Amino acid sequence: MGLFPKMPKSFDELKGFVSEVFSGWSLDASMEEVHELLGEFTWKHLAAAAGAFFVAAAIFLVSFFGGDSNPGTVADRDLPIYLKVRSGMNARDIGEELQRRGIVSSKYKFWLMAKLNGYESRFIAGSYALRAGMDVQEVLDKLVQGESSECKVVIPEGFTVHDIAKRLSEEGLVEEEEFLEKARHFAPFDYIETPDEAMYYAEGFLFPATYTLQPDATPEEILNLMADTFDQRLTSSMRRRAKEMKLSIYELVILASLVEKEARYEEDRPMIAQVFFKRLELGMPLQSDASLQYLMDAPKEDVSIADTKIDSPYNTYQNAGLPPGPVANPGTDSIEAVLYPADTDYLYFVADRDGHNHYTHNYADHLQVVEQVR
Predict the structure, then answer these.
(1) pTM for the model
(2) Does 352 lie in the same domain as 253?
(3) Cβ partners under 8 Å of residue 95, min gap 6
C-alpha cells in the first residue's frame, strides 16, 4: 500500500475507503487511549485523514448538487437524445450540455464523478444516443468507452436553412452559426443561382427527408448529402417538364418554396401555383405572405400592413416577379404542383383559420372573403 489508500472507483467503494482510513478510532476511548493513539499518529495518518475528509466532502457535494434540474418526464425518457462530444471538450463542458438537455440532473455531479473516476481526459469524441434522466455513471461509461451512434434526423418539408441549422444543433451534430455560414455560399450545382440578394445560396436545395448521419459529419458533408438528395429527387421528367414550361430549375424551386409555405393541404398546392403563374403573366406582384415571413425572426399568424412595406427584395408586395431566392426547402409535392398547376384563372386566395384557402377572380370579391374568414 502506498502513501494513500487506493482511491475508490465508484461510490459503492467510498464507505470502505473511509472505514479503512479511520479504522481503530473510537468515540468512547479513554484519555489514556487517545494519548497513546496520538503518540503513534504520523504525518501519513494525517495525509490519509485529509484524503478521507476530501472524499466525505465529495459525497456531500454530490448529494447536495444531485437534484438541481428536471431530468425530463417519464414519457420522453425512451426517446434518443443525441449528444455530440467534440475533441477538446472537458467534463465541465459536457456536464453543462448534459444538464441543459435533461440527460443528467446535475452538471456538478457529472463533473465530480468524472474527476473521482479519472475520466476527465478520457472522453472519446463522437455522437452518442442518450436519453433523459440517465444515471451519471452510465453516461460516463458510454463517453469513455466510445459507444457512439448514428443519428437519425427528420427535416420536414418547408424547413428553412435556419430551421435545419437549429434542428441539427439541437441534435448535437453541428454548431448552428457554423452551419449557417457554410450554407450562405453553398451552391454545388450549376442550376443553383447565386444572386447577391439571396440570403443563403443553399436555400431550397436541401431536400426534406429523414437522414441517418454519422456522428462526426461536418456541416459541409451534411450540406452535400442534402443537396445530392435534392439532385436525385429532381427526376429527368421533372427537368424536361420545367424546360417545356420555360422555367429554370432555380425559378421552379423558388415557386415551389412559396407553394410549400402557403399550402397546408394537398389540394391547395396546384391552385396556389396557378395563382402565382397568372400573376406573373399579368405582371402583378405575387403578394405572398410566405416571402414576408421569410424576413421575420418568428412566424406570425397574419402579416400587417407595416410588414408589407418592409424594404427587401424578398418583399413580393413591393416588388413584382419572383424573390431573389427560395424561401424554404420544398418537398416533391410542391415541385410537382408548380410543374402541373391547376387549370383555373384565379388571381387571389386567402386562408381561413383552419388553413383552407378560398380563391377569387377579383379584388372586390377577395376583400369580401377576407372579411368572412378572418
Answers:
(1) 0.68
(2) yes
(3) 104, 107, 108, 110, 111, 114
